[in-house]
Each structure stands twice: as C-alpha cells, then as structure tokens.
Amino acid sequence: MTLRDLGTSGIQTPPLILGGNVFGWTADKATSFAVLDAFAAAGGTLIDTADVYSAWVPGHQGGESEAIIGEWLQQSGKRGQVKIATKVGMLDGEGGTKLAPARIAAACDASLKRLGVETIDLYFAHQDDEDVPQEDVLAAFDALIKAGKVQAIGASNFHALRLKSALDIATREGLPHFRALQNEYHLLSRHKYEGELQDLCVEYNIGCVPFYGLASGYLTGKYRSEADLGKSVRGGRMTAFMEGKGPAMLVAMDQVAEETGATLAQIALAWLAAQPGVTAPIASATSVVQVEELVGSWNVALSPAQLETLTNAGA
C-alpha cells in the first residue's frame, strides 16, 4: 500500500478514504469506534465527514458524525495518525446559510469543538453558493487558515466553470486555492467529474476524492433483483441502476472478479483509484468486516484490459 499526495494539500492517504456519513446514523457509537479502530489499524490516514451528517435522521440536528469522531480521537489517541476532512455549506445555523462568510466562520468553530481538534486538516465547501461572491468565500477560508483553524480547503459538488473561476480569483487576489475536489463519481455515474472538471484537476494538481464510489452499495453486487431492495435503508436508490446500465456493469465486474479474486466492492474502488486526477475514493463501512474488505482494494491492481472492460460497460 502506497501513500498518495492529495493534490498540494500537504495530506497523504492510501487509495481509500473512510467516509463518516454513517456514524451516528446506521452505525451507533460502539460500531463507529470499531470501524475507526479497524481503519486506523490497517493504515488509513484520512477520515471524511461533514457538519450536516446526519441531520436527515429524525431527532438529529447535524454534527452527530463529527461528535462521534471527536470522542474516538480523544479515547483512541489517534489524532497524530489520522487527518480529518469536514465540510460547511449545507447545514444552516449561526451566521446564516450555505457559504455566507459569517456562516463559514461559525460552522468551523462548531466543527472544531465537536471534533475536539485545533485544526481541520481539509475543509470543504460542501456545495457551491452563487449568492455569495467567490472572493468573499475564499477570503472567509483564508481567515480560517491564517488563524490556524484550517490547513487546506476543498470544493465539493462544483461544476468546472465555477471551480476554474475560484482558482483564477485565488491566483489574482492572493487567496487560498481549492486543493481537493469531492464530487459524485463511480462506474455508473461519470458525468459529474469526467471531462472539463477532470482536466482541471489534472492540470492544477487538485486531488479528486469521489463520493458514492460504490453507488450507494449497488456496485457491491448486493442488489441484483427487486427482492434485494429491502436489504438496507438505501435500497430505494437502486431502481435507477437496475433499470439502466447496472446489470451489464455487474456482469463485467463479475468477469473481473473471476480473473482477479477481488470482490466487486474492491474492483469498483480500484477502478476509481486508477482514474486520472483521482487520489482516493471515499467509502463508508458499518462493520469491521466491511472495513477489511474496503481496505483490500489498496492491493487490487487492475490490468489495462480490465480497466477498459469496466469503462466500456458504463459508457
């Protein structure tokens, strides 16, 4: 397993980042701690979360995932081993909404408190906000970096035109550049990254860390018929894949699995890790067994022919 530079952020990670969206949602505290322990023990170095996780759960307000990670950091003593990425822009609160500068400042302080850390290693704008001038957004992040509260910043759910605009403004005004991009990207959904956005990441050395790398679980092979939809809370999302290119993709993945001995989840993640501009995909786990499977993708080297087979199946 080789560590990769996450763009020019100063952060290194194996070709897998642990997603924290399930912590406090489908993984309770004890399970979350076990997952985090297993990931760190395997050599994982970057955990991704957001202030809005898991505000969609009845009775939750957001910040539940950060709070669990913070407790784990304190109890495990692993802060020196792992980096933390979190996000601002989807949870309204003190200071306003989205990427209002006052909201960025207040949300950062709240995240730092929940995480129990002095610095957020990678702080993402969780979504673009066209109501706030990009100069003001970047200046708000700049203030956090100068205060030592944030090490590097990233953009999530951005289109190419807006990312390029932000990079140009940062260069012109002497403001911080986005060092990472977090967009949806997987074998069955490629349009939100490939093309202009991917070209930008390669040209500017922006590390892409895709989310939904397993297509909410579809690419694990768990959902092959309508009878499988009740297997998890995400089952309702599978119909579109089943009615589209999903079945053909699973056939191609089954072929590669037979050739390599890897699981479908490992193959999906290894394909992502091999794409230009991608540093490491993000994947979440709700058990130690799942962590062990996911980190196994580090050691899956797909041949050019296998990569082409998978690429063509989703074209």
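The above is record 1. Record 2 follows with the same two-line structure.
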Amino acid sequence: MTSTGTLVLAGTPIGDTADAPPRLAAELAAADVVAAEDTRRLRRLTQALDVQVGGRVVSYFEGNESARTPELVEALAGGARVLLVTDAGMPSVSDPGYRLVAAAVERGVRVTAVPGPSAVLTALALSGLPVDRFCFEGFLPRKRGERLTRLREAERERRTLVYFEAPHRLHDALAAMAEVFGGGRRAAVCRELTKTYEEVRRGPLAELTAWAAEGVRGEVTVVVEGAAPPGPEDLDGAELARRVAVREEAGERRKEAIAAVAQAAGVPKREVFDAVVAAKQAGPGGH
C-alpha cells in the first residue's frame, strides 16, 4: 500500500521578510510541490531567504483553487510533500487553503503546519483592546446593504472583532461600523504591520472614520471592541409593557414574555410586571 504524502501549510511574512519562520526555508527546499498564491511573490521571498525551491511550483489562488485542488490531492495521495504558501500570513485565513485542507483530510492525508506571522493576532495584540475572547470576521461585503447586514449580525457580539479591509474601502467600512455599533465604540486600525511605515491608530469609531476620510494606504486590519454587557436600559414603563405585548402577540406566554423583557432590559421582573399592570389599567376605559 502506497503511503500518502503530507500537506504543509506554511506561514509567510506579513511585511518584514526577517520574520519568516526558520523552518520555511527547509520546507521550500524539500517540498515536491510548492503551491503559491502568487508565484512572483514566492520568487521574491525565496530570493530574500536565499533558498532554492527543490520541487515543482504551481499557482494556487482564488481563481483556480477549485480546479487545482483535485490535482494537488492526487499528488498527495501518491506520496508527495506539498507546501502551500500564500502572499502573507497563514494559508486558509481569508486566503486560499481551506478547500485543499478539507479535501486532503477527506482522503486521509496528513496535514501539518509551519507556524508563522498572522495579521489577525498581531493586530489584536497591538490594539489595546481585550484579547481574552475574540472572533475573526474576515473581509466585509463590498455592497453597502450587505455590509450593514453583516455588521448587524455582530452588533451584540461581546468578543473583540477583527476585520480585514482594503485601504480604498476603509472609510466606508468604518462609517458603517460607527452606524451599527455606535460612534463611541473603541477600535484600532492597524496599517502596514511589521513594515517600515507601520501605524496603529486607536480611538472611537467616529474619530477613526473622520481620519480615514483623507484616504489610507497599505494593508489594513481593523480591531473593534465587543459590545458592552447588557445593563439597565433607560426605559419607561410604557416601553417595557409594549415589549411584553409584542412578545405576547407573537404567541409567547405572559410570564415568559415578562422574564425575557426583564433580562434584555437589565431590570427586575417585578418592574416589568408592574409596568404591564399599569398599562392595562391605563388602557381604554381605564380598566
């Protein structure tokens, strides 16, 4: 029985080539096949590392990922060592790689990694925002409506949020974040990480939106503070009663509706109950 090969996911520098993991040069020299998102960038990287690629080099990017994956899986199944590198950072993180990993796993191929730089973790660490819990949201949709919908899905997310964004869309993205999350929500825009003109701009979303209006260059990662824990809202009795009524109209029992409204508003259940009673007494005819 022929033993299968190994798929190696290799992290590449996100800016400074000196950050290349030491094992990267050895893997580039030893691989039977090197699948690169951009073969020209790979050539520049190997020159900087002073290493010769030992095997065959093929392109593997968004446009040919679906078509090329079966070819690479067959090579792996035949015993080849395939090295996957993207333009910067770890493969599969908003870059090609997921399809190949999934297909390799399905065929029983060993998958390993050469850990390396990550814009997600670097930006998160530099942001000054909580790092104990976070979620990566990738790139926002280009169209405004779809962008707002995606952001609304994360509106109440309490974990720190990390986004990638193209520099020419940064202002629109920050404006949409300020609209959905509130202009006072803290954030950090991390630009050109590890490069000569690295910049981390921190502040409320409204302030960052105004700053980005002048235009921004370079690779950008945006880190946004998570939503605050639910706390007491400044709601009057009429609004509390209205929220209960909406839930009742949807088929929820009054007891459960009162409990749900109280929890969401951060107030005691008794306060909501009293508001419902008062609203009924103030209804038509005063009954």
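The longest strand covers residues 134-139.
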